[in-house]
Write a structure and sequence with these properties.
Blueprint lengths: L6 E4 L4 E6 L5 E3 L11 E9 L8 E6 L10 E8 L4 E8 L2 E6 L9 E7 L3 E6 L2 E7 L11 E3 L11 E10 L5 H9 L13
Length: about 200
């Protein structure tokens, strides 16, 4: 119902939002997001601690034209409890691009990034590209909220776990940028040595 309490939890750097998998979510109005063109990057750090359903969504949004069908599902990122990995879908006016990984760990922080550059949708986990699916066209317009912790276009997709550092940018970030972003959340971005 959108009024569920989302608690603060320990984040990968500072605080994070703690979702209990039972109607907890945060809505961002579609008017606050530019949803046209051919460039998009969505970044987030997530830690799936439970599996309240088959595909608990870190985020999901779409359009009311065909809510509940594939036609209405536009931007999605979820934990795949069947294959123990991450899954994403992005819709353009020419169809879908999807990626999966079947290697992942629950109860572990993951740096996740989805990019679209007008030719492919890519999924990155911990700075490494794990999938690329060719798709062209403009992003489809949204009229449902961009829902963090669930999917505004599909019922029963609530996320159980922690979500932190979510950003949406209307530019297709490079693989190098995604890798540097991941490393900035670890001690591996900079190396230290003795003073010469």
């Amino acid at each position: 119902d959108g009024n569920a309490r989302v608690d603060d939890g320990a984040g990968s750097i500072a605080g994070a939002q703690d979702f209990d998998g039972d109607n907890d979510f945060i809505d961002v109005a579609p008017a606050g997001l530019t949803t046209s063109g051919q460039a998009l990057t969505i970044l987030v750090r997530a830690n799936a601690t439970g599996e309240p359903n088959g595909f608990p969504h870190v985020y999901g949004t779409g359009n009311t034209i065909s809510v509940g069908t594939n036609e209405g599902r536009y931007w999605q990122l979820s934990w795949d409890s069947e294959d123990n990995g991450w899954w994403n879908r992005l819709r353009t006016d020419n169809g879908y691009g999807e990626n999966w990984t079947t290697s992942g760990d629950r109860d572990t922080w993951a740096s996740l990034a989805v990019t679209y550059d007008g030719s492919a949708v890519r999924l990155y986990v911990d700075g490494t590209e794990i999938g690329s699916d060719s798709i062209t066209g403009n992003l489809r317009s949204l009229d449902l909220p961009f829902r963090i912790g669930a999917n505004s276009g599909i019922a029963d997709r609530e996320f159980e776990g922690l979500i932190d550092e979510m950003r949406v940018a209307h530019v297709a970030r490079s693989a190098e940028w995604i890798q540097a972003e991941h490393l900035s959340h670890t001690d591996a971005l900079l190396s230290y040595g003795t003073v010469e």
